[in-house]
Sequence to fold (216 residues):
Amino acid sequence: TSNSPEAHHRAPPLAVPAPLLADSPPFLDAGDRQVGVLLTLAQPRLVVFANLLAPEECDALIAAAAPRMARSLTVATQTGGDEITDDRTSDGLFFPRGASPLIQRIEGRQVLHYGPGAEYKPHYDYFDPAEPGTPTIVRRGGQRVGTLVMYLNTPEKGGGTIFPDVQVEVAPQRGNAVFFSYERPDPSTRTLHGGAPVIAGDKWIATKWLREREFI
Fold:
């Protein structure tokens, strides 16, 4: 069928965002800071950054989000809406574009809070083409093609970002981030990932999802 994995492999890949790493630089120029490159993988396409956020930016995001947190929702691909699931037990908040000078610099990130025991079980960030609600979802900006997870604090224990298909776990270190992209909405991208349970302390992250087109 058109929704089979084989059909997705034959489909042309989507254009995906990518940092400029052809020359294997140890740092990238982000304008007001040098961002370290700690790790790169080709399959899945994954990059771990150091010093993407300054300590004061991490603190400011947490302070701005903390008073307004609510149970995190997931996209309901059956209907095209949102839903609460047992797979995701964090609290979250969406900042609209341009909500503050800080958000203008760190545009459109979702802030999530995971207390002890909270987790986000392994999942894909793209929208499954086989689900009936996906056409409704992708009208606003197209498919998701990339994810940036930014760590706003360092939990005492646990809370790493796991990639089960490649047995990689990214430790949540304050100010660091992990980026990964997926050129097809298909498991062949090996971008299955999750937030491991927080064992002690709290975990705060900001997430930005990148789409084919501008999200409206």
